Amino acid sequence: MQNIAHIRKIASEALSVTESTPSVVSLEDRLIHNYAESMVELADQKMDLKSRLTDLNRLMDPKLSIRDQEDLSKHNIELSALSTLVRKATSAIETVLRA
Questions:
Q1: InterPro entries, alphabetically (predicted)?
Q2: Domain definitions of the chain by residue range
């Protein structure tokens, strides 16, 4: 569920232009900004997961171990989705530039 919210956030930022936004914002700038924010969030998640997965007490508790595995799976899905979105955005920009 968190990965869907993350994707929606990126999509809404990419599609929204408000009064406070400068009149010309390049797609490259938006892509870099959103990618950077997402990578910071994912890096924080990764550090949290690493600390939890190296705690032997957590690994011995089946419930916590399962929860940690689920969180690791969600993290991998979010990272994969972000990578796919960046590839698609880059491809779309290249297509527009070629046209």
A1: T3SS_SctI-like
A2: 56-99
Q: What angle do CA 7, 11, 13 make, to 5 degrees?
A: 120
Tens digit of each residue's pLDDT, the chain (99 residues): 566 666 667 666 666 655 555 667 777 788 788 888 888 888 888 899 899 888 888 889 999 999 999 999 999 998 899 889 888 988 888 898 887
Q: From the centroid of its chain, how far is CA 99?
A: 29
- Residue 75: exposed, middle, or buried by beta-carbon count in 10 A (0-12, 13-18, 19+)? middle
CA-based R_g, the chain, Å: 17
What is the pTM assigned to this prediction?
Answer: 0.61
The DSSP result for 8-27, as a single string, is HHHHHHHH---TTS-S---H
CA 12 remoteness from chain centre: 13
